[in-house]
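Thread amino acids onto this structure.
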């Protein structure tokens, strides 16, 4: 038997149909299936080769994320978190007695790549749900999930999804609106009320500008510059000069790692390094620090990052992360995709099926109050088997979905030091932000 039996292969017809780009993802797909902790023999050779505690055939989940390109560090972090959940669920009996087989496809953070990637998972792998992708590709993937009648559990803050009405959509991370509020609130709390904005021209960055501006207006803060940074340039000296021309007390921003490396170098050359920055969770990564250089952080770069502080599910997630990687600091996106897999699995357990539409009702019942709060798969599943209602709390939020299938969570303000390490300065609860921006 082939060591990759049971992993979907690309046929000549698929390639002829325009899916040749999937060839670059096949090795990734095979690796993910192996990592997920399911014997590949299960799907290819029948029940005889199935581990004793997995008496059923697998249920396939599809992961979509940027595994190559400028945002690959985010995609691989997301994939790691999803795999941790899959391994843990399989260790404790699977979903309705079925082990999970997770297959991955690469979106390269590009809608043009995301469509065939999602199509491959839906029509070739016949996935029961899609885990991911991020906000900049969800808009093109969600219609495919709609047609397939499967849920999509995404990671990303795009404000366009704040009032989602698509029943197949679930967002496991707080909105950019809440992140914008956290950035602005922290600046205001420090007395930095004269603000410059520095965002990349990409849609994922520009989508933050409107909620940032609205939050600044609400707290009566002043915008002295709003400069867009176009990726791929060799110099940003003119943009840097515009940014600091009116002497802002703080800069709020987000742009990609390559741009950041050039911009922060020119900030140092221009003598502007003393002005603090507040960036988004995109900058909470070793790849970003490597791009700008640890010295550029120098205590003046703050990161607004969704926090696991106080989350019931965080304890087990961090234990699994440490056992797998040796670190207790999760890469960006890992916790959210861990929560996504767990939410889907417990929803299926609650509903008694992963078929639509019962899976939607199961997810909402498992995740939202009332019910007994639980933060591990085994404890939640045990309660379900006893016929008790549960209220699953995740590693990054309470996973309580509002009427738009969005969640809310605390935000940590992190501060980089000159060695490139980040520590929590303060944590802003949803209640604090709601009070500050109410009305």
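Threaded sequence (439 positions):
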């Amino acid at each position: 038997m082939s060591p990759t039996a049971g992993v979907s292969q690309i046929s000549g017809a698929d390639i002829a149909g325009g899916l040749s780009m999937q060839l670059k993802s096949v090795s990734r797909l095979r690796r993910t299936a192996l990592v997920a902790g399911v014997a590949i023999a299960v799907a290819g050779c029948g029940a005889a080769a199935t581990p004793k505690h997995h008496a059923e055939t697998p249920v396939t989940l599809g992961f979509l994320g940027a595994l190559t390109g400028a945002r690959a560090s985010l995609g691989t972090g997301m994939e790691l978190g999803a795999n941790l959940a899959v391994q843990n669920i399989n260790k404790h009996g699977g979903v309705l007695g079925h082990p999970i087989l997770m297959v991955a496809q690469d979106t390269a953070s590009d809608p043009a790549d995301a469509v065939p990637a999602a199509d491959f998972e839906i029509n070739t792998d016949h996935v029961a749900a899609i885990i991911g992708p991020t906000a900049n590709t969800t808009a093109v993937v969600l219609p495919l999930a709609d047609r397939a009648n499967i849920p999509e559990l995404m990671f990303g803050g795009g404000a366009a999804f704040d009032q989602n009405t698509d029943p197949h959509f679930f967002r496991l991370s707080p909105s950019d609106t809440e992140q914008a509020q956290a950035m602005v609130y922290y600046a205001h709390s420090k007395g930095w009320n004269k603000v410059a904005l520095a965002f990349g021209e990409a849609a994922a960055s520009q989508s933050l500008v409107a909620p940032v501006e609205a939050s600044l207006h609400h707290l009566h803060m002043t915008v002295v510059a709003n400069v867009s940074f176009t990726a791929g340039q060799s110099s940003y000296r003119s943009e840097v000069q515009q940014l600091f021309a009116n002497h802002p007390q703080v800069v709020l921003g987000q742009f990609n790692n390559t741009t950041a490396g050039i911009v922060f170098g020119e900030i140092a050359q221009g003598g502007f390094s003393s002005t603090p920055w507040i960036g988004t969770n995109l900058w909470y990564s070793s790849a970003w620090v490597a791009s700008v250089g640890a010295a550029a952080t120098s205590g003046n770069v703050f990161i607004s990052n969704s926090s696991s502080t106080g989350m019931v599910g965080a304890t087990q997630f961090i234990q699994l992360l440490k056992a797998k990687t040796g670190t207790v600091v999760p890469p960006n996106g890992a916790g959210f995709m861990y929560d996504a897999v767990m939410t889907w699995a417990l929803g299926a357990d609650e509903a008694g099926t992963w078929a639509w539409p019962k899976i939607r009702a199961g997810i909402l019942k498992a995740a939202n109050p009332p019910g007994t709060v639980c933060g591990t798969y085994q404890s939640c599943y045990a309660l379900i088997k006893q016929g008790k209602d549960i209220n699953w709390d995740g590693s990054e939020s309470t996973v309580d979905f509002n009427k738009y299938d969005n969640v809310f969570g605390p935000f940590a303000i992190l501060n980089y030091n000159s060695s490139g390490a980040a520590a929590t300065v303060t944590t802003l609860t949803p209640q604090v932000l709601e009070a500050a921006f109410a009305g």
